Amino acid sequence: MAIEFTKYHGLGNDFILIDNRSSSVPVITPEQAIKLCDRHFGIGADGVIFALPGENGTDYTMRIFNSDGSEPEMCGNGIRCLGVFLADLEGESRSKDLYRIHTLAGVITPQLMADGQVKVDMGLPKLLAAEIPTTLSAGDSKVINQPLEVAGKTWEVTCVSMGNPHCITFVDDVAAIPLESIGPQFEHHPVFPQRTNTEFIQVVSRNYLKMRVWERGAGITLACGTGACASLVAGVLTGKCDRTATVELPGGPLEIEWSEIDQRVYMTGPAERVFTGKL
Ligand SMILES: N[C@H](CCC[C@H](N)C(=O)O)C(=O)O
Questions:
Q1: Ligand 1: residues whose CB is within 6 Å?
Q2: Domain check: are 103 and 18 in the same one?
């Protein structure tokens, strides 16, 4: 049975999207996802995202496999792509511009804006050691400015969860970071029992951050939406930036706000369709 897919990307963080709203379409296995994400022997992507029927009153459910086959709790660029994918699938019968999506990180709501951008309520960041899968500091102390030994150097890291774990460190020059070699050492460090995404942030101004990322289960990507959100929160917690900032990723900019009113994080950015194909 041929399975249709559509390729989307959010600032170059690219995904294979599959319409699993009907139970007659099988959800592919993690092993199949690894093959499909391969950039030489498959379609090529950072992950596979499934549009499934909603749960507990949500419109839809999102599941995602990273390109290594692991299943993360959430994906920021990916849920913007899912919002556009759903609007494309609904076509003429589309009746809304905001979707309530059930995810392993809770209910996340992408909203399609008039200018073509997608604004997402990414929910509340988790800041306490008890909420972030790390052994960096016991108890409920916030995981801020903790020393972490990686590659023979002591880094000062701040950990934030957006449903998925992020380890953030601030550096003078992100371009100088040897991401290929130290990324995996952060990802697989024993203090992160569920591994971690790792973001390196250069503070250009209090409203402009430059970011590079080594993603859990995907490696170097051109953008990471949950990582940009977690990094802004880490910047505010450590006094390095304001609560609204542009986060510049290799793939382009995201606008991130950590609301003073409801403490939720809002992310605004693009999502582009590339092509549709058949497996
Ligand atoms: N690799 C991430 C999932 C994808 C997150 C990233 N692509 C984003 O845009 O948030 C993880 O394992 O938590």
A1: 13, 66, 72, 75-78, 164, 197, 215-218, 221, 224-227
A2: yes
Q: Would you report the helix, strand and coil content of the chain in percent, each value rounded to 5?
A: 20, 40, 40
Same domain, 252 and 167: yes
Instruction: Tell me the torsion sign for CA atoms 57, 116, 249, 241.
Output: negative
Which residue among the candidates 75, 81, 159, 241 is catalytic per the annotation?
Answer: 75
Of the listed 81, 167, 224, 229, which one is catalytic? 224
Ligand 1 centroid – CA 75 distance (Å): 5
Q: Where are the alpha helices (DSSP H) in the chain?
A: 30-37, 76-90, 179-187, 225-237
Give distance in angstroms: CA of 260 to centre of ligand 1.
Answer: 25
* CA–CA separation, 144 and 230 (whole Å): 12
> Residue with structure tokens 């058949």?
278
Q: Classify the complex by whether its ipTM is higher than 0.90, answering yes or no.
A: yes
pTM for the model stands at 0.97
Same domain, 106 and 133: no
Residues 156 and 249 in one domain: yes
- Cβ-based neighbours of 93, under 8 Å, separated by 6 or more: none
Tell me the residue range of the domain where 111 lies: 4-122+270-278
- 255 and 151 inside one domain: yes
The answer on 226 and 243 residing in a single domain is: yes
Render pLDDT for 66-105 as a digit per residue (tens, 0 to 9): 999 999 999 999 999 999 999 999 999 999 999 999 999 9
Same domain, 110 and 221: no
From ligand 1's centre to the CA of 140, what distance in Å? 25
Helices 76-90, 225-237: crossing angle, 10 deg rounding: 140
